[in-house]
Write a structure and sequence with these properties.
By secondary structure, the chain is of the alpha/beta class. The protein has eleven helices and five strands. α1 links the parallel β1 and β2. α3 crosses α6, α7 crosses α9 and α8 crosses α9. The chain is globular and about 50 Å long.
């Protein structure tokens, strides 16, 4: 069985790798520290049987990476493993197609049990975590579907657009001509159903995940 662990923290990737390469799971593990590496791994080694995905990783805009993977490979389960365990975040992740949601502080036995249940076909798991009654909006689900239709390169262009990079800056980062970026941008706009950079950023903003610390520190009304 093949598993990809997509997380930008090397020590946590290594810990998860040890967990899923033994304990009766016995997976062959690939590592990705950003969305571009996740795309490359899938292209090079094939679609994994299981993806363990951190929401807050470079190249992702909220639930964008989750939506891209689920949209393209609906029969391959994704377990979100995150320190952001707000009830709203858990519910929206499940709505966007995550098979399960695990806290990064979960114990080893709980994680192993959840992973095995997912591999046995169970879905919608969030052991030990609260889940909100209010889920993802229809607009957010539509945007996720649109992002799932992007090629990996178009996805990277869209992510850099959200980061505020200009076309020439994106071209430099991806080592391509600016005309190529303009062509990608045209396709991104078409698939998102927008006509400008601002509209594209606002659309992808529907997938934003509020960091847990911002919610905890927010002043009361």
């Amino acid at each position: 069985m093949k598993c990809i662990i997509a997380d930008d923290h090397p020590l946590y990737r290594d810990a998860l790798s040890i967990l899923v390469s033994g304990n009766g799971i016995d997976a062959e593990v690939g590592h990705a520290e950003n969305v571009a590496e996740l795309h490359s791994l899938v292209e090079k080694d094939g679609v994994p049987d299981l993806l363990l995905l951190d929401l807050h990783m470079p190249g992702a805009s909220g639930f964008s990476a989750l939506g891209w993977f689920v949209g393209n490979y609906p029969n391959r389960p994704v377990i979100v493993v995150s320190a952001n365990t707000q009830a709203d975040t858990v519910r929206r992740a499940i709505d966007h197609g995550a098979a399960a949601f695990l806290s990064k502080s979960s114990g080893t036995e709980l994680m192993i049990s959840c992973i095995k249940q997912v591999l046995n076909g169970e879905r919608g798991l969030h052991p030990g975590l609260d889940i909100s009654d209010t889920g993802a909006t229809l607009k957010a689900l539509d945007v996720a579907d649109a992002l799932a239709s992007l090629t990996p390169q178009q996805f990277r262009v869209a992510s850099m657009l959200v980061e505020g990079l200009l076309n020439k800056q994106i071209a430099y980062e991806l080592n391509v001509k600016e005309a190529t970026i303009k062509a990608h941008m045209t396709e991104v706009f078409r698939k998102l159903g927008v006509q400008s950079r601002t509209q594209a950023v606002l659309a992808i903003g529907n997938l934003t995940v509020v960091p847990a610390e911002q919610t905890e520190d927010a002043p009361e009304d």
